[in-house]
Design brief:
Elements (H helix, E strand, L loop, with lengths): L1 H21 L16 H6 L8 E12 L3 E9 L15 E8 L12 E16 L2 E15 L13 E7 L7 E7 L1
Parallel strand pairs: 3-5
Antiparallel strand pairs: 1-2, 1-4, 2-3, 4-5, 6-7
């Protein structure tokens, strides 16, 4: 009986793991690049870096031009996968340029992106009425992160156990858990 209980528990556990993995969205594969300079540091440097850099953050806005698109990004430090960490302090702003057309609905304000490329210029622009020096990155890769559903605060995991004789000498045992 104990052996059957263990087998049921293992089966239910593996099934739950499989179902939870199926619900995960795929993250973009980010090609590593230099993250040692921030957009703020780059904007005030005396020379432009000649190596590819990698920054990421939250989309502020997008402008589609005749042959390219420009995405203004509020930058945050990146985690080991290259995902922007919004809970950290901002490290500046930059403009990511990409050849061709980018759908404004996909690159909507608030979406997370990671950009890899070379800095082509420092452009003076405005944030409200304040002047700001934006590094302009020519993107080799511009990765859009999947939207995440809002968390309900704390995990909701439930476990249950039941046993019954079923009115005869043979009984049943059940184990379950849910999210």
């Amino acid at each position: 009986m104990l052996e059957a209980l263990r087998e049921n528990f293992l089966f239910v556990g593996l099934l739950g793991l499989l179902l939870s993995l199926m619900g995960c969205s795929s993250n973009p594969v980010i090609t590593p690049a230099d993250r040692s300079l921030s957009p703020k540091q780059t904007a005030t440097a005396s020379t432009l870096p000649d190596q590819p850099l990698q920054w990421g953050g939250v989309v502020i806005g997008i402008t589609n031009l005749a042959d390219s698109s420009e995405v203004e990004i509020l930058a945050y430090p990146l985690d080991e996968e290259g995902r922007p960490m919004k809970e950290s302090a901002s490290i500046g702003r930059f403009i990511a340029t990409q050849p061709g057309y980018l759908e404004a609905g996909d690159y909507a304000s608030g979406r997370l992106v990671t950009a890899t490329g070379r800095i082509s210029a420092i452009r003076t622009g405005l944030i409200g009425e304040a002047e700001y020096e934006f590094p302009v990155m020519l993107c080799e890769q511009l990765a859009l992160w999947p939207e995440q559903r809002e968390s309900r605060g704390k995990p909701r995991i439930r476990f249950g156990f039941g046993a019954s004789s079923g009115g005869s000498s043979y009984g049943g045992i059940g184990i379950g858990f849910g999210f």
